[in-house]
């Protein structure tokens, strides 16, 4: 199925979870936050949150800022 | 406080009164932004030299974000993290970003920025007030970056923001405090801490902010993009302390004519 991850089209297996996506994308980052279709997915819900075709996901991490 | 040649930048010495913000008490009245530093080593040296206890950080897509090393540096410095909502243009984006930052950083403190113009990066007061209200209702400790409009500042304070953070000049401009009267007026109009945010170019700007009655100063670029960030960080620390002490001490009134400080009585006829 096709979803949008961080602004780009991505092909994921059916039944893919937020937890799986984070594991795939967030190497080197411990404090990650995820938005799914404009809402926050709390870390405690990553395992049980499955993605659907057309979903828009943002996987974010800390950086420097003023 | 003892300053020796071998210790040009004393740390951990409180020369000003405690700073209560969001229910916490800080020794330092200088908040430091982490953006723009040439390296992590330079950032760490600047953070330490500044004496800050509260530093801003941001969230970006993982591909563009720095790795975990920056957080390790900040943890090592023992500073509290203050996530920002930099880059947000609407209340909806800013509220979502604050909630994501709460997840990532484990803090409900937020430096709320809602930008209304891409060139000047000036805040959008309508979206800002909307976002501030939502986040206060959601239990956040909201520190909003705002213009120097005293009425907007009062509205933000009335909504329950933990402080108001008016600009001195546009972000990163280094133009100093363009409307000192507005900043002084804001200090008079609100009961929450006033933190001068944005526009600081050099140490005298930070000192002026404190002399105008501000409770703190937030700056990033002036330190991180200085030729010597660590040295400028120390300068800012001393400027904030000096300005605070001067504000408490009470400046003399301005006069149009001279007034001798040496008495005339007993002047010999030579």
A few lines on this structure:
Chain A is mostly beta strands and 66 residues long. Chain A has one helix at residues 18-25, and strands at 2-5, 8-11, 33-36, 39-41, 56-64. Chain A is built from 1 helix and 5 strands.
Radius of gyration of chain B: 20 Å
- Largest sheet properties of chain A: 5 strands, mixed
Approximately how much beta-strand content do the residues of chain A carry? Answer: 35-45%
Q: Major beta sheet of chain B, specifics?
A: 5 strands, parallel
Number of strands of chain A: 5
Q: Between the first and last Cα atoms of chain A, what is the distance in angstroms?
A: 38 Å
Nearest-angstrom radius of gyration of chain A?
Answer: 12 Å
Q: Mean of the pLDDT scores of chain A? A: 94
**Uncertain segments of chain A of ≥5 residues (pLDDT<50)?**
none
Strand content of chain B: 15-25%
Stretches of chain B where pLDDT is under 50 for at least 5 consecutive residues are 1-10
Task: Assign the structural class of chain A, choosing from mainly alpha, mainly beta, alpha/beta, alpha+beta, or little secondary structure.
Answer: mainly beta
Cα(first) to Cα(last) distance of chain B is 45 Å
The proportion of residues forming helix of chain A, as a percent range, comes to: 10-25%
From the spread of the alpha carbons, the general shape of chain B counts as globular
Q: Report the strand count of chain B.
A: 10
Give the oligomeric state of the chains in this entry, treating copies of one chain as homo and distinct chains as hetero.
heterodimer
């Amino acid at each position: 199925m096709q979803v949008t991850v961080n602004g780009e089209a991505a092909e994921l297996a059916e039944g893919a979870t937020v937890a799986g996506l984070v594991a795939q994308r967030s190497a080197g980052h411990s404090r990650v936050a995820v938005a799914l279709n404009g809402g926050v997915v709390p870390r405690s819900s990553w395992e049980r949150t499955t993605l659907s075709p057309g979903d828009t996901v943002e996987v974010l991490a800390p950086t420097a800022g003023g | 406080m003892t300053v020796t040649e071998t210790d040009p930048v004393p740390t951990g010495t409180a020369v000003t009164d405690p700073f209560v913000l969001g229910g916490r008490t800080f020794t330092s009245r200088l908040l430091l932004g982490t953006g723009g530093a040439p390296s992590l080593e330079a950032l760490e040296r600047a953070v330490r030299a500044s004496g800050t206890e509260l530093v801003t950080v941001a969230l970006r897509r993982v591909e563009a974000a720095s790795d975990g090393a920056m957080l390790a540096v900040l943890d090592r410095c023992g500073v509290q993290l203050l996530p920002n909502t930099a880059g947000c243009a609407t209340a909806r984006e800013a509220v979502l970003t604050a909630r994501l930052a709460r997840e990532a950083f484990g803090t409900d403190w937020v430096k709320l920025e809602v930008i209304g113009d891409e060139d000047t990066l000036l805040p959008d007061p309508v979206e800002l007030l909307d976002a501030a209200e939502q986040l206060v209702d959601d239990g956040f400790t909201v520190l909003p970056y705002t213009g120097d409009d005293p009425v907007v500042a009062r509205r933000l304070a009335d909504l329950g923001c933990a402080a108001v953070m008016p600009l001195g000049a546009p972000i990163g401009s280094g133009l100093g405090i363009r409307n000192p009267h507005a900043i002084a007026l804001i200090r008079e109009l609100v009961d929450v801490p006033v933190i001068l945010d944005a526009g600081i170019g050099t140490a005298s700007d930070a000192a002026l902010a404190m002399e105008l009655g501000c409770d703190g100063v937030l700056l990033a670029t002036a330190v991180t993009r200085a030729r010597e960030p660590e040295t400028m960080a120390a300068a800012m620390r001393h400027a904030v302390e000096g300005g605070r002490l001067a504000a408490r001490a009470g400046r003399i009134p301005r006069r149009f004519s001279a007034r001798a400080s040496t008495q005339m009585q007993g002047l010999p006829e030579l």
